[in-house]
Amino acid sequence: MLLSPGLRLFLYGTAMITGGVVLVIEILGAKMLTPWFGSSHFVWTAQITITLLALAAGYYLGGWLADRYASLPLMYGGLVVAAAYLSFTVLIRAKLSAACLELNLALGSIVASLGLYFVPLTLLAAVGPYFIRILAKSLQDVGRSVGRLSALGTVGSVLGVLVTSYVLVPYVRDSVALLGTAAVLVVLAGVYFAIWGRDEGGLGGAGAAAGLALLLGVVALRRESEGTLSTHVELERANSHFGTMQVIESRDGRMRYYLNDNLTQNTFDPVRKQSLSMFTYALYELSKGYSAQWKRALCLGMGVGIAPRQLANDGLAVDVVEINPRVVPLAQRWFDFDPARVTLVIDDARHFLRTSTNRYDTVQLDAFLGDSSPSHLMTREAFSEIQRVLNPGGTLVINSFADFTPGRDFFGTALHRTLRSVFAEVRVHGMSGGNVFFVASDRAPLEFRAPASLDYVQAWVRPSLQAALSGTMPMDESKGLVLTDDFNPVDYFDAPNREKTRRMLARGAASL
């Protein structure tokens, strides 16, 4: 096939763009699965596995087609089919992911990724070997063609990673970003057919696929704009590097929710400007009841600012470390958070702890990413860094989800033993399978000063709060693994509990 210089340049450009789109789909795809499967290594394992399988299948398919049908319209038509499939995934993502949620975390995430992304990734991967056959002028020219295409595909992949991570994820809704990616493929094919492929076969089929992609995209956007809430109203939705943030409110205006990747993180009464979640009160009362002094506090994880605000209302100097800057204006608008009343630092908690020169009477660790706490904050080294910033007799209070049922107790027993490897005394409050609070201190024995009254707490929250505060859970000191920065398999061994928690939170959010 005789190629004009312009067409040859366009094919190289196509190789670079498709290389970038592969990485866009890989990263966006994993992010779009997090509302159902979380952001654990299971999701990334699934996405990377399916991407690699699709690349292998696409390379084979491209080579096979190149030996039989050296026809550019066929390949550009395949790009339009990939675009149509991507548009289709926006429509089916929620239902397919919800269905796969009934499987275990590892299998469910693989099946969802396979159904959503294998086909378009395979079609994109076929471009490279197909173009090698088209671009190589002779056997002596094959190496040069392979090198150029591989280099351009890799450069495109790098650009895809950067654009996705620093433009699409923080500033564009995931569905819109994926539909925009599909549109890029349609435009790419359209340019080819308009300039070089008008007299070749395949134009009609490609046009039909492009029309289908457009139709699916319009339907998907319209369905998203209509929303799925039945009893509540969405007040705000925004992307961030740490998940999709959503604020919804009951139609009577008495209950407001903060959701991250479809999972409820906190609840709030906008009329009384008070939390409706037990854990915020438990963090406050346990911190106050166990602390020897009550002057300065550190909150690792801001949430929507409710827990730090409670401490500030008590007259404490409060430092807040939050990794997600985009949650701050949302907390101001909808959850009565005033950053001026605290010292707010946008940073990772571990980095802050290593560099801080301040000392605190209490540290509240309430950092969650969806259904679990970041594992790097739950190691012996992390707790040693917290111990360093505590005043003598100071307390660490951790909000977590832990289950102490035999066979499901890896995280709870490991967290307890890890804390005991650093602190002199550890107490555990709460209920197995729900919110569990770990209190640790160098002061032993620890004595809890129960609050004189809980009348300030919302009435229907009071019973669960009283149950959490009233006694400690007995712990077997011989059980558990000490978690370290070098060996911390909690994401793997705690997966069944996280599946259970995620299903509970996801179903709760789906009922709103």
Overview of this protein structure:
This protein is an alpha/beta fold and 512 residues long. It has two domains: 5-226, MFS general substrate transporter like domains (Growth Hormone, Chain: A, Up-down Bundle), CATH 1.20.1250.20; 264-510, Vaccinia Virus protein VP39 (Rossmann fold, 3-Layer(aba) Sandwich). Helices cover 55% and strands 14% of the residues. It has 17 helices and twelve strands. It has helices spanning 5-37, 41-68, 72-100, 105-125, 127-135, 142-171, 174-195, 203-226, 278-290, 306-313, 327-334, 349-355, 380-389, 410-420, 462-470, 490-493, 495-510, and strands at residues 232-238, 245-250, 256-260, 263-269, 274-275, 296-300, 317-322, 343-346, 360-365, 390-401, 425-430, 435-441. It has a seven-stranded mixed sheet, with helices on both faces. The protein has a five-stranded antiparallel sheet with strand order 1-2-3-4-5, with helices on both faces. Helix 1 (5-37) runs antiparallel to helix 5, helix 2 (41-68) runs parallel beside helix 4 and helix 9 runs parallel beside helix 15. The longest helix is centred in the first third of the chain and has 33 residues, at 5-37. It is elongated. The termini are far apart. The model has no long low-confidence stretch (mean pLDDT 88).
How do the strands and helices of this protein lay out in sequence?
Blueprint (H helix, E strand, L loop, with lengths): L4 H33 L3 H28 L3 H29 L4 H21 L1 H9 L6 H30 L2 H22 L7 H24 L5 E7 L6 E6 L5 E5 L2 E7 L4 E2 L2 H13 L5 E5 L5 H8 L3 E6 L4 H8 L8 E4 L2 H7 L4 E6 L14 H10 E12 L8 H11 L4 E6 L4 E7 L20 H9 L19 H4 L1 H16 L2
Parallel strand pairs: 6-7, 6-9, 7-8, 9-10
Antiparallel strand pairs: 1-2, 2-3, 3-4, 4-5, 10-12, 11-12
Helix pairs in contact: 1-2, 1-3, 1-4, 1-5, 1-6, 1-7, 2-4, 2-5, 3-4, 3-7, 3-8, 5-6, 7-8, 9-10, 9-15
